[in-house]
């Protein structure tokens, strides 16, 4: 409503100026400005209405509204008639150019939006593990960078989870069963870790990034995950029973993300020695 009111107000202002100064041949430019200004709204209907109203008011002003006594009627002067015809032609030309400009700008904007949508979709795909639906390794690296930036304002606990003897599942039952187990395990992680981010680092290794909770709280969550893992039931293979080990490390303000990862990895290595264990660094 505002854009229409503003554009039509310009047309009526142009009409007043044209009536007052139409003794001058170039006074039609007032209407040109009114039409061109509508292109900033990228609304072809608004431009069309503005152009049609401009032409109509210019004709009415020229033919039916006498203002200057010295003005010569277009029916009395071939020159005036020619100037008026040229003015109408220019208005229609400006109208056509404005519509073309709006059309191409709209196409350009649509192409830019599609490009941005595809870029965001690709970025999303890169940050999501296709098999399990949790965050990917790239997303973990981005989260680590963000953690490094915000470490002064937040507390973090980093954990690495590894399924014990997972290779045996792939070797004995095939990778399709192994993939099913990974998806089930990822669902358990998402269910228990609503307050943290879950990442698949690679293979059967998953990472958990806890924010603003204590180490004891993180350990308790990991214990709950271990209990749920024991209840995993693979269709047609009830004999498959595996466990999971965790290595946890607390992030400190003077600790780099690389060192944090190495500490959690060392804790995981210690946990894997006895299996189904949680170790902290």
Written overview of the protein:
Helix content is 61%, strand content 11%. It is of the alpha+beta class. α9 (257-272) links the parallel β4 (244-250) and β5 (278-280). It is rod-shaped and about 110 Å long. The mean pLDDT is 90.
Summarize the structure.
The protein has 281 residues and is an alpha+beta fold. 61% of the residues lie in helices and 11% in strands. It has 9 helices and 5 strands.
Tally of contiguous helical segments: 9
Instruction: Sketch the topology as an H/E string, one letter per element.
Output: HHHHHEHHEEHEHE
Point out poorly predicted stretches. none
Order the strands across the largest sheet as they lie in space: 2-3-1-4-5
Q: Distance between the terminal alpha carbons, to the nearest Å? A: 64 Å
- Helix proportion of residues, in percent? 55-70%
Amount of beta strand: 5-15%
Q: Using only CA atoms, what is the Rg?
A: 36 Å
Structural class designation: alpha+beta
Number of strands: 5
- What is the overall pLDDT average? 90
Question: Can you tell me the overall shape?
Answer: rod-shaped
Major pleated sheet? 5 strands, mixed
Task: Describe the secondary structure blueprint for this structure.
Blueprint: H1 2-21, H2 29-37, H3 44-64, H4 78-127, H5 137-150, E1 156-163, H6 166-173, H7 175-192, E2 196-202, E3 205-211, H8 215-230, E4 244-250, H9 257-272, E5 278-280
Parallel strand pairs: 4-5
Antiparallel strand pairs: 1-3, 1-4, 2-3
Helix pairs in contact: 1-2, 1-3, 2-3, 2-4, 3-4, 6-7, 7-8
């Amino acid at each position: 409503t505002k854009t229409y009111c503003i554009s039509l107000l310009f047309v009526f202002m142009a009409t007043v100026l044209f009536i007052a100064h139409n003794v001058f041949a170039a006074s039609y430019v007032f209407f040109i400005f009114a039409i061109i200004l509508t292109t900033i709204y990228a609304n072809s209907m608004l431009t069309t209405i503005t152009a049609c109203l401009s032409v109509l008011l210019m004709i009415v002003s020229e033919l039916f509204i006498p203002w200057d006594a010295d003005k010569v009627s277009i029916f009395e002067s071939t020159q005036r008639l020619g100037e008026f015809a040229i003015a109408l032609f220019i208005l229609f030309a400006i109208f056509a150019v404005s519509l073309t400009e709006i059309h191409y700008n709209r196409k350009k904007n649509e192409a830019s939006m599609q490009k941005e949508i595809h870029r965001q979709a690709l970025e999303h795909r890169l940050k999501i593990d296709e098999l399990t639906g949790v965050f990917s390794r790239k997303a973990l690296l981005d989260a680590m960078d963000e953690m490094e930036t915000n470490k002064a304002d937040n507390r973090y606990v980093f954990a690495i989870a590894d399924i014990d003897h997972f290779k045996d599942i792939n070797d004995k039952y095939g990778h399709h069963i192994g993939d099913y187990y990974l998806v089930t395990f990822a669902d358990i992680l998402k269910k228990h870790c609503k307050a943290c981010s879950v990442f698949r680092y690679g293979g059967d290794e998953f990472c958990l990034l806890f924010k603003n909770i204590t180490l004891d709280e993180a350990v308790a969550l990991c214990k709950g995950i271990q209990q749920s893992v024991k209840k995993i039931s693979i269709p047609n293979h009830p004999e498959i029973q595996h466990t999971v080990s965790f290595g946890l490390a607390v992030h400190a303000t003077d600790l780099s993300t690389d060192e944090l990862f190495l500490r959690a990895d060392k804790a995981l290595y210690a946990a894997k020695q006895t299996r189904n264990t949680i170790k902290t660094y």
